């Protein structure tokens, strides 16, 4: 397993692109906690901190597919680096003005979220040209999903470390400056500079004109709901079983489970179409959420949290392959960015839904939300199997390519549908 990942990382530019993308995405991964800590340090309320974090999240969800489309049209360096600079400057403006000027604070935070560069989608568009072999690309998608878990674990620790060494304002400035350096490392690399999207058919829907992609996004909206609801239900559980330390162990175990599952999944080659495999993975993911409703003692609950994460990274890695297969020609970065947006929106909905459920029915009821959301994701996949699974007359060609692998044209969209 380690040898397979090591072979990918030894490929020229692979380590640099993966590391640069992760570093470049640190501002996005840490925005919520950095904003909340900064507002509280400046004497603002939790309500204000939450509102500003929500503004950032909504703006980010809007900006990712829009910037992804621009990347497909104009290339990575001309979009990614200016976007990273604008996002960092907007967050710096927020750090220096603080919450005293509310309108300016909301505008600055919104601009920072809106201009967050779509590095995640950009990396997945680069893998085929960097690695070449299809099985290596699939393994790289799994490694990508694993790396995300590491980033979302390490990122908050970096923020709190900056706060401890300097201040909350410094944390905002440092993390965003480091993010620009990460984006710079990616866009000056030869693969990023040389990458060009395939010629695309003009259409206002862009990547969303693919029925298979829409079905996938519908399923992952509910998977996002599941993850968002776990964070709220986890806080409720920790309040009665040891406080913040227990919550930290639960979230760490969830990430550890995803790391383990993604590592094993990406280490082997899988037969059959990924669309059918995703249905199995999502079913297992939903089943592993159910035991959380038992709400046992803290050690057992930590173990159940690890189990709940096992099939998350494999589901994400499989979804990346499906996006690559169903993205309309010339829209691969935009398509991957839509997956990020959908997942983010789902997590926000899950957070909003779990709170009232916990207040009404208690912690166990809160943990019922991820199981139900996982079941809903599975139902979406099963209901849309005809548009998800390629058939000889579907117009989707397995193994087609964006730098050779994404030459797909969706059925039902012709020149008459062009914008």
Shape: globular
What is the helix tally? Answer: 18
Give the uncertain stretches in residue-range form. 392-419
Order of helices and strands: HHHHHHHHHHHHHHHHHH
Tell me, rounded to a whole number, the average pLDDT.
86
Quickly give the structural class.
mainly alpha
Strand elements, count: 0
Distance between the termini: 47 Å
| Estimated share of beta-strand residues | under 5%
Radius of gyration: 21 Å
Task: Indicate the percent of residues in helices.
Answer: over 70%
The largest sheet, given as strand count, sense and whether it forms a barrel, is: none
Main traits of this protein?
single chain; 419 residues; mainly alpha; globular
What does this structure look like?
With 419 residues, the protein is an all-alpha fold. α4 (46-74) packs antiparallel against α16 (332-361), α5 packs antiparallel against α9 (168-187) and α11 packs antiparallel against α12 (244-266). 76% of the residues lie in helices and 0% in strands.
Short précis:
The protein has about 425 residues and is an all-alpha fold. It has 18 helices and no strands.
How is the topology of this model organized?
Blueprint: H1 2-10, H2 14-24, H3 26-41, H4 46-74, H5 77-97, H6 102-114, H7 119-131, H8 134-165, H9 168-187, H10 190-194, H11 211-239, H12 244-266, H13 274-289, H14 298-309, H15 312-326, H16 332-361, H17 363-383, H18 385-388
Helix pairs in contact: 2-7, 2-9, 3-4, 3-8, 3-9, 4-5, 4-6, 4-16, 5-6, 5-9, 7-8, 7-16, 8-9, 8-12, 8-15, 11-12, 11-15, 11-16, 11-17, 12-14, 12-15, 13-14, 13-15, 13-17, 16-17
